[in-house]
Design brief:
It is built from two helices and two strands. The chain is of the alpha+beta class. The chain has one domain.
Amino acid sequence: LLEALKVITDHTDENLVLVCMHGRAMRLLLCLLLDKELSEMGDFPHQNTTLYRMSYEDGKFAVIDFNNTDHLKL
């Protein structure tokens, strides 16, 4: 995860990046991005195909949209 995160943050010319992963890995990544302990990964609810939108400014990540499943509604 750390290597992938470095690749993402090093490409400052990119405005939008899509990361797709399984739920447990997503929780690990959220802990890493938001400087949380791994023991707090259960605080991030998720469903299948859920979306998290993040921003990255001044070397810090922030959650813009959390556990969004609007795309599943018909």
